Amino acid sequence: MKMKAGFRNMLLFVSLWLAILTGVASAADQCLECHSSWEEGADAPSAQFQHDIHSKAGLSCASCHGGDPTLDDMDAVRNSKGYKGVPGAKEVNQFCASCHSNPAYMVKFNPSLPTDQLDKYKTSVHGKRLFEQGDTKVATCISCHTAHSIQPASEPTSSVYPVNIPKTCAKCHADVNYMSGYGIPTDQHEKYIQSVHGKALLEKKDISAPACNDCHGNHGATPPGVTSLSAVCGLCHALIADNFAKSPHKVAFDAMGYPECETCHSNHLIEKPKMHWVGVSDSSLCVQCHAPDDGTGGYDAAAKIYETLVNINSIYGAALAKIDTADLKGMLVTDERFALNEVKQAIIQTGTAVHTFDPEAVSQIASPGITSAQNITRQGEKKIEEYYFRRKGLGIATLLITILVIAIYLRIKSIEK
Amino acid sequence: MAEKVARENRLFRWVDERLHIQTLVDYMSHKVVPQHSHSIWYYFGGISLFFFVVQVVTGILLLLYYRPGADSAYESVKFIIAEVSFGWLIRSIHSWSANLMILAAFIHMFSVFFTHAYRKPREMTWVTGIFLLALALAFGFSGYLLPWNELSFFATRVGTGMAGAIPGVGDFLMKLMRGGEDVTGATIGRFFGLHVAVLPGIFAVLLSLHLFFIQRQGMSEPLEWASNPQLQKYRPFFPNFIMRELLVWLIMLNLLAVLAVFFPDGIGVVHWPLGQKADPFAPPPPVIRPEWYFMFAFQALKVLPAHLFFIEGELAGIIILSAGGIVWTLIPFLAGKFSSGKKPALVIAFGWAVLAFIVILTILGYILE
Q: What integer is the mean pLDDT of A54-58?
């Protein structure tokens, strides 16, 4: 023990000298000095902490764990100097909050950073279970942010960067054993990665697509209930939410206690909407509630809306096919292709208008797109006709030229006879 | 019938009294063209001339709708292709004819070279011919930018940039061509002026001289005819040769029509799709290459090392190519000095070397990209 202490003293002596020699004037952090030499690998707390935002802001191990970083004797540190050791699940949150809930202190580092995380946490399912039921399996600050390699959410390497959030949540929520006893599903992550949102975020790296926290909240993580679901979706899909709120479905869904958007679109496995969801076929969602003579008129409305959707999509398809054919024949169709983008836009708007559940409104929104697509089809037909006109013209010209060539040839022969 | 002839004669007399064209008619009726196994090469000068006439006519038609300028050039070419009646055909013919004219001119030049037709007394015909080819290439280079699309923009940037490599005057020359530091709307103005006014003016003068020389000197005869009069065989220039020329021109016209209708945007490496409008801030397209008739020079500059002895590779290339061009132009004056005899082997070898250089580097240019 003595020898080890002597060896450590020598190390300290050498490193101090090195620091002085290299011009580093800061006092050595004894915790890091020793932990770095004992611990191995990039996962070790001492190695991770070098890249932690707290380390960069000038905090040391002792700032969280207590103790005196100038002393090298572990026992002395333990017994006095306020060493706190490894905090338990309950302490962790208080621990982080000791700084992060103090606006006057946080302003030095990042004035725009909120300081109400702990308050929100206490309202979350995680926080309630921890503080009210003493359930220490729930997520605390370090479960999401990590303990020693904390990065700001704007850093792509951070565990709470949008693209990394689904995995961070899934660490617990997709673990069947860990989640057993809570009575909630564990397939959310599996479903989310197949959803339009998941594909946009994880495959296209579109960080404006929602991750778990965009619907569930982050520090105040809570499942959106029946009443707040449409508000959550409406954050991004504002026009659709507005259409729905004014539609007859709003009242009916509220009365029956249906969650609004989720009823048709599901929650985690949100697919790209399909045309046949609307209408009165066996695969349509409308007929799950509406029957031909149920007195709501919903059945007929669904049939009419479906008709409009089929109409605009098929006319778009026909226009696209004509333009592609003309393009293949070498005709210039850049303007028509540009106009087709507007029709595509009209199709999206029509999809939005479906949420009014009013066949007239849907038809009105689709109408300019249908007219435009019909015009483009005609343009495409004209270009294809023009293509054949050119071929015929060339044929006639070639015939005339050939006759002339033969005539001149015969003339030459007759002159030279 | 007799009355018509009399009237024609009256008209002819009226003109003849004022312009004395009878001498010209006499001259034409006595003019003959040598007839032999290589007579076919006599047609390529005429073919070049035919394509040039097509260029003038279609160029004037395009001029009716083309509007130079960074904001209007691309749009007006698009308008010509999409909206103007037969605009697509005129543009397509103009582009095809430009390429065919240069091809015919190259064939014409090498056929003149290998039949030794550049010899005394035809030195000036050769020199004016070389200048005409150089002008044709300048027409090609200046016309390429006018549609102001992505490809033409970046190709012009590279092309004018090469001029900048010339020491001393390079920078001045580059700015003169670009009308500033970079290729901009100002460059279109300059290239347009060059393409429709400056070059046609000089070209018209040189072409008139070239044709005048040919008419005064007649077609060059094969060398062996001088020593062997039995071989000599002629064909009347008018109407026999002219009729044959007309026949070839008609076939060329039909070829042009077929190419223009079937491939309005060109085909393969001879390709001029309108594409996207030029955007100086967009990244350059992955393949920037010059037109095929500049490919050998472009490739020659590309394969040279960064430094050749003590000078920069690109500059060395420009010097070597320019020197080659000067020697080629002065061939009628140098041939006798470096090689004697009727068929100077050294000169022939030089001709084949130049031809091989052009063909091989052109092919390499397309294979190695």
A: 84
